[in-house]
């Protein structure tokens, strides 16, 4: 087994960070493939909590090479803050590298993100305001700045003069906002250049050699299928492809090299930001699950919307990503719920749909079709093997696996590494 992809199967925050951390000591290299500091991955290791936005969650394992791939949009300020925080905790970043081809979030991107949301008014998306959409826009428009540009000060300066004219025109004329100062941006980014220089690599030969030597590589996806720019609930999505295909594109690894795709799913569903969410629980049970599951965003602190497990979404995730193996997280959050709902499909104007509709207005107004199962009403936190789990809990897990279309090989029953039940090794 040499290349494994890990993706989120719902609307993000499934616990991908925890799973990457669990797998990191069994792989030689972790490559983060898309997204930016909109992601928030929490890892709890030996009781200590770490929060990552850009740095791959494998960094806690000192011998694992961690790479930020070219599909990521990197805010150098956020990245360096994360590095400093890790150093303060005594964690080494000697094995951390950034692709020369990765694009940068520039100071005007978060401001344009914020202003874009204000302009949309009631139709705002609820972005993380980290400038992710505007940074990917510039990449596609071919006026983006790449990490490698930091190593070419004269080029950086010339390009900034051209690009900033466009940006300041938009800021002042379209949004009536303050323009950005070229000198200040240049000084700030040349400061980052000094610190980032030793980490910048053309990662192509690194990845090629790792594959040639049969090293184990794990591709770390951020976000999740339902936030995918094409397959998600557009326009209530992020601006990248958080799929297995996106992981290949964002790391430069051919799909034919991939041996396995792991999907991480929560035992229920959450979503941050606006957009359709068919199984959302807006009642007191939803509030209770939010409290018990501590469903508040790692990046923005916003309350996550909470709902029942949506097996139609899960099947869609399994099929579009080619997921072979599921990690089911936060099962412990359901410990005290008497009856559990599982959505198996949707009814829309008398018609049954077994997958999320492309038309988000239909998805917003459809009626989910539910199965109900009895809860187990006892704590799972101390279970260490699958057979330790209460029979009703196992029945729920089995049913989710059946409906989702892939085996549930690992069950997570708490945030720490030890709160993990392995039925079948992932790697
Ligand atoms: P990611 O974005 O997919 O990496 O997920 P986040 O880190 O944003 O959100 C998952 C949250 O759930 C984090 O605070 C984790 O520490 C926590 N977590 C992960 N697995 C479990 C679990 O099995 N049970 C509980 N109670 N918390 C978990
Ligand atoms: P991780 O990797 C959950 C959501 C935002 C918003 C939409 C667009 O932690 O799972 P953006 O800032 O990307 O333009 O916002 O996407 N979003 C996430 N929701 N987890 C994430 O990442 C997310 N990254 C973006 O809330 O609805
Ligand atoms: Mg998260």
From TrEMBL:
It holds the Pfam family Adenylsucc_synt. Substrate binds at residues 298-304. Binds 1 Mg(2+) ion per subunit. The active site is at 13 (proton acceptor), 41 (proton donor), 139. GTP binds at residues 12-18, 40-42, 304, 330-332, 412-414. It catalyses: IMP + L-aspartate + GTP = N(6)-(1,2-dicarboxyethyl)-AMP + GDP + phosphate + 2 H(+). It comes from the Bacteria. HAMAP family: Adenylosucc_synth. Belongs to the adenylosuccinate synthetase family. Plays an important role in the de novo pathway of purine nucleotide biosynthesis. Catalyzes the first committed step in the biosynthesis of AMP from IMP. This is Adenylosuccinate synthetase.
């Amino acid at each position: 087994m040499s290349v494994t992809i890990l993706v989120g199967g719902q609307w993000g925050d499934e616990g991908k960070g925890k799973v990457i951390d669990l797998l990191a000591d069994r792989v030689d290299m972790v490559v983060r493939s898309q997204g930016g500091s909109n992601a928030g991955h929490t890892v709890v290791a030996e009781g200590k909590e770490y929060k990552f936005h850009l740095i791959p969650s494998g960094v806690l394992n000192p011998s694992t090479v961690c790479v930020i791939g070219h599909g990521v949009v990197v805010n150098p300020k956020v990245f360096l803050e994360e590095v400093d925080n890790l150093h303060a905790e005594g964690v080494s970043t000697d094995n951390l590298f950034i692709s020369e081809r990765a694009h940068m979030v520039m100071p005007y991107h978060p401001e344009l993100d914020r202003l874009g949301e204000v302009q949309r008014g009631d139709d705002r998306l609820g972005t993380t305001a980290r400038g992710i959409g505007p940074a990917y826009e510039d990449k596609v428009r071919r006026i983006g700045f790449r990490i490698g540009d930091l190593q070419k000060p004269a080029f950086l300066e010339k390009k900034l003069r051209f690009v900033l004219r466009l940006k300041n025109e938009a800021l002042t004329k379209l949004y009536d906002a303050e323009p950005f100062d070229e000198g200040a941006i240049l000084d700030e980014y040349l400061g980052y250049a000094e610190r980032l220089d030793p980490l910048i690599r053309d990662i192509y030969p690194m990845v090629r050699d790792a594959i040639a030597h049969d090293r184990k590589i794990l591709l770390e996806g951020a976000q999740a299928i339902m936030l995918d720019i094409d397959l998600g609930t557009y326009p209530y999505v992020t601006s990248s492809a958080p799929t297995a295909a996106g992981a290949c594109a964002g790391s430069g690894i051919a799909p034919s090299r991939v041996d396995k795709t792991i999907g991480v799913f929560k035992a229920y569903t959450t979503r941050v930001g606006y957009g359709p969410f068919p199984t959302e629980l807006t009642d007191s049970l939803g509030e209770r699950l939010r409290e018990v599951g501590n469903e508040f965003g790692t990046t923005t602190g916003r309350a996550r919307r909470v709902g029942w497990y949506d097996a139609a979404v899960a099947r869609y995730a399994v099929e579009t990503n080619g997921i072979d193996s599921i990690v089911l997280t936060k099962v412990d959050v359901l410990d005290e719920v008497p009856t559990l709902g599982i959505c198996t499909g949707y009814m829309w104007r008398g018609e049954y749909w077994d997958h999320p509709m492309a038309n988000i207005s239909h998805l917003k107004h459809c009626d989910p079709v539910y199965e109900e199962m009895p809860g187990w009403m006892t704590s799972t936190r101390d279970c260490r093997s699958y057979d330790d789990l209460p029979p009703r809990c196992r029945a729920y897990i089995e049913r989710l696996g059946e409906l989702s279309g892939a085996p549930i090989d690992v069950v997570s029953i708490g945030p720490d590494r030890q709160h993990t039940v392995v039925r079948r090794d992932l790697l």
